[in-house]
Write a structure and sequence with these properties.
single chain; elongated; 262 residues; alpha+beta; Arc Repressor Mutant, subunit A; 11 helices; two-stranded antiparallel ribbon
Amino acid sequence: MAKTRMLKHDLRTSEKVASWPREIRYFWALLWGYVDDHGKGKDNPLLVKADCLPMDEDLSAVDIDGWLWHLASEGVLARFTFDGADYLQVVNWTEHQKPPHPTKDVLPSFDDSLSTRRELHAPCMKDAGSTHAPFTSGLGLVKSGFGSGSVIVSSPPAMEFDTAWAHWPKKVERKKALERFKIAAPKHPDLVADIIRFGDAYEATTEKQFVPALGVWLSGERWTDELPQSRQAKPTKDERALSIIEQGRAMDEAQSRKELRA
């Protein structure tokens, strides 16, 4: 494994990279030190965490896995399986790095005929007899695969986000919310359904100024909260007085019926 990597100026000015959350931009650069001289490595979030961010005790392998899926959804990283083992590979590695005296290329590649691309939320179904398909960036509703089969991949994160966003009553900081959604989605497979559930509940029970921004809600993993419920307004003084009168009237009627029966 090489000891040094180059960081080109293009990385700092890339609009695509700039659209990612800041921590993922940093992680992306660190990941180049994890992979070998050919941009490949074992796809094990525990190993990646130990190599890239060993001092960050607040981060878990689940967090790293989410960041890796974010990079995969952006089309810059391939996560694939070869002969039962999981690997990752930086797409277009040679455009970013040209290590002098590279080590021997020993790990499989994502475009190997026996490699199968891993997909977030993808069904474990393969198409028998499909021809080799090219690498397709993102998580689109397409058939893709590197080897003898192809898998049906799930809908793009942006499309899933749009579905959830439509149900959130407070439409603020959309870009931030989308970034947080991409990070949270790998951790929580039912995220879209929970956003819809909570969004509809907020719409029915809570004034808009008191609804949290979706990005804030996602950051706090508030899908684990109880659903918001409408608060019953306290009765006014007149309403309390009428209630007492009605109670007294009911008691008098009950007493009258009792006396008639006697």
